[in-house]
Design a protein that fits this description.
Pfam families: FHA (PF00498). With about 240 residues, the protein is mainly β. The chain is built from 1 helix and 22 strands. Strand 5 and strand 6 form a beta hairpin.
C-alpha cells in the first residue's frame, strides 16, 4: 500500500475505511466496502483481530446508506468511540474507534461533507410467541443471543452466545446470523443475511417471533415499550483477514 511522506497509510479517494491508530499506526487501512463489516477474533471475521481483548464477534459496522454506524455485539471489553463506551453509535469523519486493545481512525472517504441519511424503516417490534408484550427494537438494532447483555437475552441452550442481529440499513430492516451453531430462519428458511418485511416470521433456537409495526402494539403496549426503551442497557460475504 502506498505511503505518504510521513509514513501514514493512504486510502483510495472516496473509499470509507478504518485506519489503524495508536500503537498500530502505519498498518494497512481496512476498506469498508461491504454493506456490513464484522469485526472480531473469529477467523471468518471481515476484520480479524487476534487478541484476548477481542471477542469472537465483537462489533458490526453498517453502511446504512448515507452514513455508517457501529454496533457492539455484547463484547466482553466493549466498543468505544472517542473514548466513550457505546452500544451503538454513528461514525463520523475522524472518529476514533476502539475495539479491545485496537484503535482505528474512521474516514468516510468523502473528506467529511454531510451525506444525506437514508429514510428510516417503519418503526417495528418483535412479537414473541408465548409473551404478552412485544419486544422493542431500541435505536437501529437488536442483538439476540444467550449472553445477558444482548438486547433480547434467551436462556435456551440451542441459542448461541451472540446468535443474530436485526438492524437498519438503507431504509430497511435486515436480519443477519452471527455464525450461530443452530442457524437463524426466516419464514422457515435458513438465512445468513436478508431484508425483513413486516409480518416475517423469525426463528432463533426454538423461539419464534414476528416482526410487526410498532403501531400494532396498541396504546398500552406502546407506553410499556417506551419505558423499556428508556431503561435499555448500554452495552454473501468473503472474509478479509487483517491480523495485527
Amino acid at each position: 500500500m502506498a505511503r505518504t511522506a510521513d509514513s501514514q497509510p493512504t486510502t483510495a479517494a472516496g473509499v470509507p475505511a478504518l485506519v489503524p491508530h495508536g500503537r498500530f499506526k502505519g498498518k494497512p487501512a481496512m476498506p469498508l466496502g461491504r454493506p456490513v463489516t464484522i469485526v472480531g477474533a473469529r477467523n471468518r471475521s471481515h476484520l480479524h483481530l487476534v487478541s484476548p481483548s477481542v471477542s469472537k464477534s465483537h462489533a458490526m459496522i453498517v453502511n446504512a446508506g448515507g452514513g455508517f454506524y457501529v454496533r457492539d455485539l455484547a463484547s466482553r471489553t466493549h466498543v468505544h468511540v472517542n473514548g466513550q463506551r457505546v452500544r451503538e453509535a454513528e461514525l463520523r469523519e475522524g472518529d476514533i474507534l476502539g475495539v479491545g486493545a485496537f484503535t482505528f481512525r474512521f474516514t468516510d472517504g468523502a473528506g467529511g461533507p454531510a451525506r444525506r441519511p437514508a429514510a428510516a424503516p417503519v418503526p417495528a417490534v418483535l412479537r414473541i410467541g408465548g409473551r404478552n408484550l412485544p419486544h422493542p427494537i431500541v435505536g437501529r438494532s437488536m442483538l439476540i443471543g444467550r449472553r445477558p447483555t444482548c438486547d433480547l437475552a434467551l436462556e435456551e441452550l440451542d441459542v448461541s452466545t451472540t446468535h443474530a442481529v436485526i438492524f437498519q440499513m438503507s431504509g430497511k430492516w435486515f436480519l443477519r446470523d452471527l455464525g450461530s451453531r443452530t442457524g437463524t430462519f426466516v419464514n422457515g428458511t435458513a438465512v445468513h443475511q436478508q431484508p425483513l418485511e413486516l409480518g416475517d416470521h423469525v426463528k432463533v433456537g426454538e423461539l419464534e417471533m414476528t416482526l410487526v409495526a410498532a403501531s400494532e402494539a396498541g396504546a398500552a403496549g406502546l407506553e410499556e415499550l417506551e419505558d423499556l426503551a428508556g431503561t435499555a442497557p448500554l452495552a454473501g460475504d468473503e472474509p478479509l483477514d487483517l491480523i495485527f
